[in-house]
Structure formats: structure tokens, C-alpha cells
């Protein structure tokens, strides 16, 4: 029987939870248990093969959460606004209550900055605000806790903001950021930061850690992309109201997020330096691009 402490990772088959699970498994200091809605998925099977215990459950099923938390010392929690929208708050509350009512001693929740407070309610960004409200809720519970704030994923350039062909046959991307700094991270690196938090919990109790691997302007992201891909990629500032009018779900949310970043977040250098001290392997955008340039081939004719 192992005397290692056990950590429950929610979202183990997703981007953030998957990174945390992989880092913890490689570290080998904890038993890892992953909560997933589909224990028969290929991703869940891969986690089991890597050494994780995989348990079936979800945030709407409180009994499944209580069962998954049996014998657990630490919990990494992440909820998904873009899958559930307003329902995220209740799901996060269910998880937080279950952790608080269990014997778990340490809860790390993946959240985001309180835009309402920082902007004095100037910008409405629900996918930030619901997580900030959950932070406030967790602050009122008895369990020891920390928060991690992951920056803009580099991987978003492969999904939401890929280089697109322009009218003059060049390629580019854009958002309402002006030419101010936008912090980013390779989301596969987040687990390196969270692992350190679990390894030294007393150091991080009650604190918020920024998951930041680089801090660049849109123009700098484009130049780095151009260099790695060997073709010209440009960045364009898209006015907030234009971006909000694009019509896809959450367009106004994202438009407000970029506008908030441009106005209220001059830089995240201090967080970036702390994150790199916690996990020295944290990738810069340049490193990430050099390792992932082949994934961009499908965007070019």
C-alpha cells in the first residue's frame, strides 16, 4: 500500500487538467486520481496507462464528487465556461463544497482575474467574472487553497486566432489589443507550475500564481510567428466594437477581455518571472513556435 498522498485532478482529459496530471505523474511524489465524465475515452485510457487512477464523475453529480474525493489530500480544480457558460458557477460551487466537506487539505483552483474589480465594472467579461466569483466563494470556505491564473494560450493561434489569408494575399490575425502587451503561456506547461505548488503548499497557501510564459505585443507575436514559419504574418488591431459584432458565441466577451487587457494590464513580468522560477522549462512563444510550426501548415495555401 502506497504511503504517498493522493491528488485529485479534475479535467484530466482536458488541456489544463491534462498538463497537471502529466507533470504529477512524471514527478512521482503523489498518487494521481483523475476525474472524467468518460472513463472509456482514449484520453482517459492513456491517463490510466501512465499510472493515474481514473474515476468517472462530473460537477453536476455531487455524489460522484464525494466518491472521487475519498482518500484525497490535494485537489486541482478547473471548470469550463466555454462548454457550460453561466452553469459554470454552480458546477464550481459543487466542486468547492465537495472539497470543503471532504478530508482534502489543499485545493488549487484555476481561476482568472477579477475584471469587475480591476476595471470598476467598465468591462463585462463573463468567462473571467464567474471564475472570480468562485474565488470569492472559495475564500469563504475552510479548506486551504491557492489560485492559478493561466494567461492567453499560445495554442489559441491554432484554433481561435490562426493566421488567415488577407485581401493582399498576405496572412494575419487580429484582436482588440492595440499594440499593448498580452501575456501568454503554452498550456502544456501549466502543470509544471501547479506541481511546484503541490510540492510546497505552505509557500502558496492563500496566494495567486500567474501562469505566464511570455508577455508580447500582437506585433511581436506576429514577428515571432513569421520568423518560425518563414513567411510574413501580420497583426492587426481590430476595434472592440467590430470584434464584438462578429456574432459567434462569446464574441462580445472576448472583445471586452482584450480591451480590458490593453487598458488595465500594462505587463505581467513579475508573474512571468515567478512562474519561470517555479518551472524553469516554461516555454517562451519563440520556443513554442519552433516546436509547433508544422501544425500551422494547413493554414497556408
Describe this protein's structure.
The chain is of the alpha/beta class and 301 residues long. Helices cover 43% and strands 19% of the residues. It has helices at residues 15-27, 42-50, 62-68, 81-84, 87-101, 115-118, 126-139, 190-199, 201-204, 218-229, 240-244, 251-264, 269-278, 285-292; strands at residues 6-10, 31-36, 53-56, 74-77, 106-111, 144-150, 152-153, 164-165, 171-175, 182-185, 208-211, 214-216, 233-237. The strands form 3 sheets. The chain has a 7-stranded parallel β-sheet, sandwiched between helices. Strands 7-10-12 form a 3-stranded mixed β-sheet. It starts with 5 loop residues before the first strand and ends in a 9-residue tail after the last helix.
Present the secondary structure layout.
Layout: E1 6-10, H1 15-27, E2 31-36, H2 42-50, E3 53-56, H3 62-68, E4 74-77, H4 81-84, H5 87-101, E5 106-111, H6 115-118, H7 126-139, E6 144-150, E7 152-153, E8 164-165, E9 171-175, E10 182-185, H8 190-199, H9 201-204, E11 208-211, E12 214-216, H10 218-229, E13 233-237, H11 240-244, H12 251-264, H13 269-278, H14 285-292
Parallel strand pairs: 1-2, 1-4, 2-3, 4-5, 5-6, 6-11, 7-10, 9-13
Antiparallel strand pairs: 8-9, 10-12
Amino acid at each position: 500500500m502506497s504511503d504517498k498522498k493522493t491528488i485529485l485532478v479534475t479535467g484530466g482529459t482536458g488541456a489544463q487538467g491534462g498538463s497537471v496530471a502529466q507533470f504529477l505523474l512524471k514527478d512521482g511524489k503523489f498518487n494521481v486520481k483523475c476525474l472524467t465524465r468518460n472513463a472509456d475515452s482514449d484520453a482517459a485510457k492513456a491517463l490510466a496507462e501512465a499510472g493515474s487512477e481514473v474515476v468517472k464523475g462530473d460537477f453536476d453529480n455531487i455524489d460522484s464528487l464525494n466518491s472521487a474525493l475519498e482518500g484525497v489530500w490535494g485537489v486541482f480544480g478547473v471548470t469550463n465556461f466555454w462548454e457550460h457558460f453561466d452553469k459554470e458557477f454552480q458546477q464550481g460551487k459543487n466542486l468547492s463544497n465537495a472539497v470543503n466537506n471532504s478530508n482534502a487539505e489543499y485545493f488549487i483552483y484555476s481561476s482568472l482575474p477579477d475584471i469587475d474589480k480591476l476595471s470598476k465594472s467598465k468591462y463585462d467579461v463573463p468567462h473571467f467574472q464567474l471564475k472570480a466569483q468562485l474565488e470569492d466563494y472559495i475564500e469563504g470556505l475552510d479548506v486551504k487553497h491557492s489560485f492559478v491564473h493561466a494567461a492567453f494560450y499560445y495554442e489559441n493561434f491554432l484554433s481561435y486566432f490562426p493566421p488567415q489569408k488577407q485581401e493582399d494575399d498576405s496572412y494575419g490575425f487580429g484582436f482588440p489589443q492595440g499594440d499593448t502587451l498580452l501575456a501568454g503561456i503554452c498550456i502544456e506547461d501549466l502543470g509544471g507550475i501547479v506541481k511546484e505548488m503541490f510540492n510546497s503548499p505552505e509557500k502558496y497557501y492563500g496566494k495567486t500564481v500567474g501562469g505566464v510564459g511570455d508577455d508580447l505585443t500582437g506585433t511581436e507575436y506576429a514577428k515571432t510567428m513569421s520568423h518560425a514559419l518563414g513567411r510574413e504574418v501580420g497583426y492587426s488591431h481590430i476595434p472592440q466594437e467590430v470584434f464584438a459584432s462578429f456574432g459567434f458565441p462569446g464574441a462580445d466577451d472576448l472583445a471586452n477581455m482584450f480591451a480590458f487587457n490593453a487598458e488595465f494590464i500594462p505587463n505581467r513580468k513579475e508573474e512571468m518571472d515567478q512562474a519561470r522560477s517555479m518551472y524553469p522549462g516554461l516555454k517562451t512563444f519563440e520556443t513554442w513556435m519552433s516546436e509547433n510550426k508544422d501544425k500551422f501548415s494547413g493554414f497556408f495555401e
